[in-house]
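[Discussion] Sanity-checking designs against the backbone

I'm trying to build intuition for which residues belong where. Below is a structure token string of 147 positions. I'd appreciate it if someone posts a full sequence so I can compare it with mine line by line.
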């Protein structure tokens, strides 16, 4: 009888893990998206950022840049955001960004959006508690230059 409960709890736990989308499970981990001799760029997907003042929950992909050198590194790129498989930011120079990552340090977006870099290191995906008129597809760091 004891083996029956062990088997049942294993099957129930395994079934739960299989039912949870992988993007939900990976929400709190950083994944390398671009490795370079000077800077590594990571992403954390499906991060829900509450905006309590506005009563909104917003979902983002957050970026992190890690400078592996003893010198400041400049990273330039166009943040291309795709919704319904169409790039909605490709023709807009407002999404051309340059960030300077200090020597041996990390720039990391978070849900506070207090620093100027946060807007350059975050990709809006969707409203969690509002109507979305288009579906987030993906993002790309186009024209990426690391100096």
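Best answer:
Here's mine. Compare freely.
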């Amino acid at each position: 009888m004891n083996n029956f409960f062990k088997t049942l709890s294993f099957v129930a736990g395994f079934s739960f893990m299989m039912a949870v989308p992988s993007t939900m499970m990976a929400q709190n981990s950083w994944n390398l998206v671009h490795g370079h001799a000077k800077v590594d760029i990571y992403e954390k997907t499906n991060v829900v950022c509450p905006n309590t003042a506005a009563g909104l929950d917003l979902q983002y992909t957050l970026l992190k840049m890690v400078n592996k050198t003893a010198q400041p590194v400049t990273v330039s790129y166009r943040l291309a955001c795709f919704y319904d498989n169409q790039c909605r930011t490709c023709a807009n120079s407002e999404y051309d960004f340059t960030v300077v990552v200090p020597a041996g340090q990390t720039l990391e977006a978070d849900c506070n959006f207090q620093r100027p870099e946060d807007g350059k290191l975050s990709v809006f995906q969707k409203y969690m508690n509002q109507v979305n008129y288009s579906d987030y597809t993906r993002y790309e760091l186009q024209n990426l230059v690391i100096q």
